[in-house]
Design brief:
heterodimer, A: 14 helices, flat, B: 3 domains, two-stranded antiparallel sheet
């Protein structure tokens, strides 16, 4: 009898424990979610904020209320039709530039990364280990160190630091700079190829397939997740990168800035102005929505890549 | 109570002496580095010797064509009627010789042998016109030392490339000799091309990356390392009495390195006074940024993946948002949210909790508390980094064998105990490579600092272009891009490399992933 009671009591307390721990977990998660959402929501709200200050201009950063009193699309209209840094329709132009850079460098980078990763993973040749070590050592130098030299190099062949009519050459230079280093970031893809069974490659060889055929007909069809992951990283890179684009293209050619350089200049550039903040926020929303959409759409592949990268380094 | 088996190889004894183990590892590392450098040079010397012997053997054994191909590329292949290959080799040799002799000029700076001579960096300071009556006047342009150095390096790279072509030309001819001797036909051009898709597929696939990496990574890196040994510093060069010298610099050995450590000159004193504080903060930042994000991420993953929690997907999506949003957007949003005029300060002031705006990120006035800014930077970095670790560890959490937990529960282990004895050790064991690379990544974490604080708040006293929250990398950026003090910047870059390289090598050499790279398949 006594034993029974004790058991019942234990059972009861466990249940309570569970409820308490569950409630606490929900509470913690909701609180954390709020912390994570507040800054993002603030940018979105600012993008739609159309309050005017005492001078009759749109308010910028100076606001004491988190939620706007008046909302509308004025910021977006101003942003898309506005002239910034004496470039007409600057923002759509920046978007277009970034899209071009992203698409081209995505194609080149994906090709380079996959080819290098395949060689390092499935082929055996004399220089394999030395090349991998050299790549690792080069990767340890801070990127900014070589950035300025890359700028001089590109400038000496006319692909960087141009102004006025030749300015579009800078975009070509930026594409080169983005995709040239891509092949050295093969580790994640190599980790993926490593796990693919080598026996497949060997049996294909016995059947008389060349290495090229094996790559094209056996390895690539099995590599959809890593192809998508690599392409996603390469495509979103130019939208997210800011400093490389700023250095290669330079301040002298606002018509070929990428969108991140342009938006940064709205806030902190020579012609920046606190009242531009809401337009900056509108720009962020325009850039953020497609990128976030892409991430969410391809989330599965992204997570696979990240997990593989974590374990293989 | 039974001991819960953890997958970690560490025993309790070792854990206690973790500091000692780390010291030993560092000690071992340096003796090992010494040994392996010695071994490397021994190996290098041996293989060079062997290569010379081989070449000599080829010269003695080879046919007339092979002997001639030591001097004229492709002749050996022409002898063997491999015309396309032979002509390609010949054309590459002619192009190389023309390049070296004619010295094509870009921006008035020559390539070729002149570029090699120019590596002395003693350039021509003034552009002048020389009048020589019967002939038309010739104009000599002023030189630009950075281009002299850069073009010299490019020329050296081209010489190395040519050397590789030269060797492969001899080898190809010798191979055809042997094919003939064995009664086979020398390979046709078509067969050679076909072998590119099979036996030498790696050659075809790696060449584009190798060339791109040579041009955009190797040469720039060597260029900046060289800059560390020069006087390339606009600050000095513009202060020079003669304005024409502003594009010229020269070699000055280890002066810049000595300056940073000893501070012999007044400039050096200023640099060295800032170098160690910045280095210290960089290490503090790297440790905190790595471990807060790492353990925070694991905890969050555990929380979300807890049994019985609903809306897992919704929560996960909310946190993933910060990864998907471009960093410059989320960081600049944070910066403005916390700025002097931003909503956080305004709301706090309206509530009457504070009298004047707090410089959370040290943006508004000088004399801001640097510790607040440092704390905030680490906090915001958690906001950025935790979702990433959460995402990564969620997958690993599912792989932890359930019977481990079961056994622990039977033994009466509490939940926190299970977390510390099973979950953490397992995840740490699996993700050590990530931990190392994220530590190195945080040492070089440019975006977070640059976009959040821009290095601020300003230091009282000698700043030498570095604020309170500046890391080595952001300081490097400010010195080179903003202030054109390239040599000091390059020295700092080299130090950053040495630090990251030491950490990475120690950690990787001891990790399983490195040792078993080959056996994994």
């Amino acid at each position: 009898m006594k034993k029974d009671l004790k058991l019942k009591g234990l059972h009861f307390s466990q249940r309570t424990n569970e409820i308490i721990s569950k409630t606490l977990s929900y509470f913690g998660l909701v609180l954390l979610s709020l912390v994570w959402i507040v800054p993002i929501l603030w940018i979105v709200l600012s993008a739609f904020r159309t309050e005017v200050n005492t001078d009759g201009d749109l308010v910028g950063i100076v606001v004491s209320n988190y939620f706007p009193n008046k909302i509308g699309f004025d910021n977006f209209i101003n942003l898309f039709t506005g002239t910034f840094y004496s470039v007409k329709y600057a923002f759509p132009l920046w978007m277009l530039n970034t899209l071009i850079v992203a698409v081209v460098s995505c194609v080149i980078s994906t090709f380079l990364v996959l080819s290098v990763a395949y060689c390092m993973s499935k082929l055996r040749f004399k220089m394999r280990k030395p090349l991998m070590n050299v790549t690792m050592i080069l990767g340890l130098f801070p990127g900014f160190m070589s950035m300025i030299a890359v700028y001089f190099l590109l400038k000496s062949i006319g692909l960087a630091g141009n102004t006025s009519e030749l300015a579009y050459m800078n975009i070509l230079g930026l594409i080169l700079a983005y995709s040239a280093g891509a092949g050295m970031g093969f580790q994640v893809a190599k980790g993926f190829f490593d796990v693919l069974p080598t026996s497949l490659v060997e049996s294909a060889k016995l059947d008389g397939c060349s290495n090229f055929q094996i790559f094209l007909k056996i390895i690539l069809p099995m590599s959809k997740p890593i192809i998508i992951y690599t392409a996603l990283m390469a495509f979103t890179g130019p939208w997210m990168d800011f400093i490389f684009a700023k250095v290669i293209i330079g301040d002298g050619a606002p018509e070929c800035w990428t969108v991140s350089v342009g938006l940064y200049s709205l806030l902190f550039g020579e012609q920046s102005d606190a009242s531009l903040f809401t337009r900056f926020a509108a720009g962020c929303v325009c850039v953020g929505i497609p990128i976030v959409g892409l991430f969410m759409f391809l989330q599965k592949y992204y997570v696979e890549g990240v997990t593989a990268g974590a374990v293989k380094g | 109570m039974a001991i819960v088996q953890t997958p970690s190889p560490e025993t309790g004894k070792e854990k206690k002496n973790i500091f000692l183990v780390a010291c030993k590892a560092v000690g071992h590392f340096f003796t090992n580095v010494g040994k392996s450098i010695g071994l490397f040079f021994k190996k290098l010397g041996l293989s060079i010797g062997r290569a010379f012997k081989n070449m000599y053997q080829i010269f003695v054994d080879g046919s007339v064509g092979t002997k001639l191909s030591f001097f004229f590329c492709g002749v050996g292949n022409l002898f063997h009627k491999q015309f396309i290959k032979g002509f390609l080799f010949l054309i590459s040799q002619i192009a190389f010789v023309l390049f070296m002799v004619l010295c094509p000029e870009i921006n008035n700076t020559p390539y070729g042998w002149k570029a090699l001579a120019n590596l002395a960096l003693e350039g021509n300071p003034i552009s002048q016109t020389i009048f020589n009556p019967p002939n038309p006047p010739t104009k000599i342009e002023a030189d630009d030392s950075k281009l002299l150095l850069l073009f010299g390096l490019v020329t050296i790279a081209i010489i190395i490339l040519y050397f590789i072509i030269w060797i492969s030309n001899i080898k190809s001819s010798y191979k055809s000799d042997q094919d003939r001797k064995a009664g086979r036909k020398p390979t046709t051009f078509k067969q050679d091309m076909a072998s590119l898709l099979d036996n030498r597929f790696h050659f075809l696939m790696l060449t584009p990356t190798a060339i791109a990496a040579l041009l955009f990574t190797v040469i720039p890196t060597i260029f900046m390392i060289s800059i560390a040994f020069t006087t390339y510093n606009d600050f000095d060069m513009n202060a020079a009495t003669d304005i024409y010298y502003k594009n010229l610099f020269h070699w000055n050995g280890f002066t810049n390195f000595i300056d940073i450590f000893q501070g012999n000159t007044s400039l050096g004193r200023e640099i060295s006074a800032r170098f160690f504080p910045v280095l210290g903060w960089t290490m503090v930042w790297a440790v905190f940024a790595t471990f807060t994000c790492y353990f925070g991420g694991i905890l969050l993953a555990v929380l979300i993946n807890k049994k019985g929690i609903r809306f897992k997907k919704v929560f996960r999506t909310i946190f993933i948002l910060t990864i998907a949003i471009p960093q410059f957007i989320s960081l600049l949003a944070m910066r403005n949210l916390l700025s002097g005029q931003g909503p956080v300060n305004q709301i706090l002031m309206n509530l009457g909790w504070i009298d004047s705006a707090i410089g959370f990120l040290g943006l508004n006035t000088t004399g801001d508390n640097p510790y607040i800014a440092k704390f905030m930077v680490i906090l915001i970095n958690m906001w950025l980094g935790i979702p990433y670790t959460m995402l990564m560890t969620s997958g690993i959490l599912m792989n932890i064998p359930a019977d481990l937990y079961e056994a622990a529960r039977v033994d009466g282990a509490s939940k926190p105990k299970m977390l510390f004895k099973i979950t953490f050790p397992y995840i740490i064991f699996v993700t050590t490579p990530y931990l190392i690379s994220s530590f190195v990544g945080n040492i070089n974490s440019f975006n977070t600092i640059f976009l959040l604080t821009g290095g601020g708040p300003t230091v009282t006293g000698g700043t030498y272009k570095a604020g309170e929250t500046d890391l080595l990398v952001t300081w490097l950026y400010k010195l080179t891009i903003d202030n054109q003090e390239y040599n000091t910047g390059a020295v700092i870059g080299i130090f950053t490399f040495l630090i990251t390289a030491t950490i990475t090598l120690i950690a990787y050499r001891r990790s399983k992933a490195y040792k078993e790279e080959d056996t994994f398949q």
